[in-house]
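BACKBONE GEOMETRY TOKENS:
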Amino acid sequence: MSMRALARASGLSANALSMIERGKTSPSVSTLYKLAGAMGIPITAFFREQHSQQEVVFRKSSERARVPFPLGLLEGLGGEFFIGRMEPFMLTLESGASSGPFGIVHSGHEFVLCLRGELEYQVEQQRFLLEAGDSLLFAAQLKHRWRNPGTRVCTAIFVLAGFGKDEHPGEFHITSSLQAGANP
């Protein structure tokens, strides 16, 4: 994408983009959201670290990547280091926490296992209430979103799989959660 095309798509000036590119200024979070939207990527792609990919990944609980967001916590379960196309993570949600008002769409498949509490999942027009032990599996290109409708903390395991090489679908869940906290 050319600088002019990015400027048009993001609503930012080519001069501002040039200054960011040359390190003369640092973009605000609002600017990063505009750029991510214009490029069709999650905002977290700007902060992505490249990890060495391994065939076997062992993670101690204390070594998990943790991403706090309003009313919740996302914990990586080693997918960022795995050579295969699978991203498992654990989501802990306080009462009322959600992925926000907009649906999430990404490639591959999504599996969710509720470990405790309640987790409401909407996939397209269907709603599913998961309680401890319940699971849900669906094609992730279907618009989906989640929330904790209960009064207790909810913990769930998510496994994203079958996505394309160099894709990071978990970032869509992280970005959605961060935006939900910024714009309830």
Remarks:
- The first helix runs from residue 3 to 10.
- The chain has a mean pLDDT of 83.
- The beta strands are 66-69, 72-76, 86-93, 109-116, 118-123, 126-131, 135-139, 144-147, 154-161.
